[in-house]
UniProtKB/TrEMBL annotation:
Keywords: Immunity, Immunoglobulin domain, MHC I, Secreted, Signal. It comes from Knipowitschia caucasica. Residues 1-21 form the signal peptide. It is found in: Secreted. One of its GO terms (biological process) is antigen processing and presentation of peptide antigen via MHC class I. Residues 26-113 form the Ig-like domain. It comes from the Eukaryota. This is Beta-2-microglobulin. InterPro entries: Ig-like_dom, Ig-like_dom_sf, Ig-like_fold, Ig/MHC_CS, Ig_C1-set, MHC/Immunoglobulin. Coiled coil: none annotated. Belongs to the beta-2-microglobulin family. One of its GO terms (cellular component) is MHC class I protein complex. Gene3D superfamilies: Immunoglobulins. The lineage of its organism: Eukaryota, Metazoa, Chordata, Craniata, Vertebrata.
Amino acid sequence: MKNTPLVVSLLLLICAGAIFAKYAAPKVQIYSRAPGLFGKPNMLLCHASMFYPPELNITLLQDGGAMEGAHQTELAFEESWFYHLTEYASFTPQKEHKYSCQVSHQGETKTYHWGETKPGLKQD
Ligand SMILES: *[C@@H]1O[C@H](CO)[C@@H](O)[C@H](O)[C@H]1NC(C)=O
């Protein structure tokens, strides 16, 4: 059959699509560029990775409201075909505020809090 290579290629493409189309929940990390010190200018970053499909929303929050001046990196993918994305904003951590990152993917929204697992977070 003349078209065999074409048929095989198509079948491979379909199989590959089925593998890559698998849902994968994002791994999320929220961290500051420099060690978190109250009153010291810093940058808050929220990194989501290993997710699929590539539709995902990240929002950085201060006390539950969207942080001003937040930027997002381009959606990028790794060799593994999973996507990653980072949202970041300059901030000066204040003791009286709570910082978090809200990530929505596939209709599921989760909130990750900054500082809770950071023993380096010191008070002035
Ligand atoms: C991301 O936000 C937009 C605008 O609010 C919304 O239409 C879309 O459904 C959201 N996507 C996900 C994956 O939550």
